[in-house]
Amino acid sequence: MAPDPRSTAICLALAGTLLLCAAEGNAAEGKHAGMVLIPAGEFTMGRDGGPPEEGPAHKLFLPAFHIDRNLVTMKEYAKFIQAKGPVGPNGEQYLDVADSDNRIHLIEGRWQVETGWDDYPASEMAWHGAIAYCKWLEKRLPSEAEWEKAARGTDGRLYPWGNGPPTEELAFFGGWRGESVPVGRYPKGRSPYGVLDMAGQVWEWTRSTATSYPYDSKDGREDPSVPYPRVTRGGNASSGHEGLTATSRHTVDPGRQARGHAYYGFRCSSKVEMVF
Predict the structure, then answer these.
(1) What's the pTM value of the predicted model, to 2 decimals?
(2) What number is the average pLDDT over the span 203-221?
(3) Whether 39 contacts 51, CB under 8 Å
(4) How far apart are CA 150 and CA 247, in angstroms?
(5) CA 184 to chain centre
(6) Among the ranges given (13-27, 62-76, 98-112, 138-152), the one the predictor scored with the smallest mean pLDDT
(7) DSSP alpha helix (H) spans, 36-124
(8) Angle between helices 127-136 and 74-84 in degrees, nearest 10
(9) What pLDDT does residue 275 have?
(10) At residue 195, what are phi and psi to the nearest 5 degrees?
(11) Which of 10, 71, 150, 266 gives the lowest tally of CB atoms within 10 Å of its CB?
């Protein structure tokens, strides 16, 4: 099939000579269906004048990557639990089936979502469950750098939609911790790249450890085998305005909180598969 002429080629220079290109606009096919292509380039990570853990503001270059437009839903996560079960091979919890907030149940031999909950954000999974789900799809949990660039773009904005404060048209907040609504209901609150629900709803797991800035992906903070704690992003339904910013960092120790909770969810990211 001929490339779509409307696509924009994103070219990355390797060693100053070799150009590898990925066609923006053709990314949402196959493995990357439902994902958004975030182009390579520099962005501002963190901010000055906010909580100490969010600073200093600094420039960071990221290669191109894909990220889910929406949070992983209950329906999508139930397919994973059906394939892998609620507990991993080393006893790690993928789904807290004993929690009263869990909406995925074993019914007549199949893991199924409670009626009416299919499109709500998947929750009650521990960090290991989020990691395993993305790996199952040959993807990965986003780093917090990837998450932040997808949320705020390159203009240093405070929220996904800009610098104005949250309103009921932009994000789901002002509720109780663990409350959520079906994904994608706030298109006006989308990020510069069109990614949805990056403020409010549920905190989102990342693969990054809670290490101070400046951010450096080569220091081991993105290695899933290194010691905890991990960073979640985006706030949840009970977060105030500060917690909904694109720079807000919430630290969780998966070792101590090995169970899932209704106020943690996630989305996946993926490397760009380059073509000559």
Answers:
(1) 0.88
(2) 94
(3) no
(4) 11
(5) 14
(6) 13-27
(7) 74-84
(8) 80
(9) 53
(10) -80, 140
(11) 10
